[in-house]
Amino acid sequence: MKLPDVISSTQSKRIKNAVKLLKRHGRKSSGQFLVEGPQAVREALDRHVSQDLDGHNPGVPEWMGSTIDPKGAVVDLFITEEAAEVHPEFVETVKSAQIDWNIVTPEVLAELATTVNSQGVVAVCEHLDVALDSVIDKEAQLIVVLSQVRDPGNAGTIIRLADAAGADAVVLTSSSVDIYNDKTVRSTAGSLFHIPVVTGVGLSEVTEMARARGLQVLAADANDDAHDLHHPWDSGLDLTARTTWVFGNEAWGMGEKDLELCDASAAVPIYGKAESLNLATAASVCIYESARNQRM
């Protein structure tokens, strides 16, 4: 396998530009973010080559009519020589898709990586969030909304489980964590490239649109009026219906004003002595209950 020249200096312009993406300001101004590790990079590359808006082979030159969806597109790949030997398919893909790439030394890659033991590959990708009205439509069955969710691990995990449960989209309100934060991206385990994600919208806008498109809006909240998620029918809650689930902040849950934007609340019953469940665990139960009932 013939390799390009090795970038061995952190002062390389391409490396310096990529390093800026470790900061939120750099990501916001450029519209790009970093993806680290073989699993996430593989998913990013798979999405890139599968985006073919005009029915053409996305791996062929532009003059032949190939069209790549810019959202989520891989624009650069940095890989160590060792990683390139372990993952030759990455090199083959970037070559065929005409993506910029370079071999870098482990020291240079360490400037881009945020994990202690990097696995030798980092990609630069375009932002991939989409408009709200593109995901909340009359066909949507299950929408997941994160309202004021601040922990990147929770947000990434919920995106991953929403993908696994077959949800139509995940929406993060404007007060929630940056989905392009390295911890969030890593926590999605590649699901960020599978499921549509909306960012920067208000909860009232989401709930109003969802209701207008025929989805019920349920808050995951253990208030006095909440339905028992394991016995929903006893209190008239229909989990087979098209549903938008809203999950609140890790520390304080959902405020009264936010609850008023929802049609009803539902709580996961606790049968043991634990005081509560963490956000990602509670979300997994709620989302899968809807997914299961909708498929019965």
Looking at CATH, which topology of the largest domain would you report? Alpha/beta knot
| CATH architectural grouping of the largest domain | 3-Layer(aba) Sandwich
Sheet-strand content, in percent, reads 15-25%
* Mass-distribution shape: elongated
Q: What's the total number of strands?
A: 12
The strands making up the biggest β-sheet line up spatially as: 8-7-6-11-9-12-10
* Class from helix and strand fractions: alpha/beta
- In round numbers, the mean pLDDT is 91
Order of helices and strands: EHHEHEHHEHEEHEHEHEEEHEH
Count of helices? Answer: 11
Largest sheet descriptor? 7 strands, parallel
Question: In CATH's first tier, which class of the largest domain applies?
Answer: Alpha Beta
Q: Could you tell me the radius of gyration in angstroms?
A: 21 Å
Fraction in helix: 25-40%
GO molecular function: RNA binding; RNA methyltransferase activity
InterPro entries: Alpha/beta_knot_MTases (IPR029028), MRM3-like_sub_bind (IPR053888), Ribosomal_eL30-like_sf (IPR029064), rRNA_Methyltransferase (IPR051259), SpoU_MeTrfase (IPR001537), SpoU_subst-bd (IPR013123), tRNA_m1G_MTases_N (IPR029026)
Keywords: Methyltransferase, Transferase
GO cellular component, one term: cytoplasm
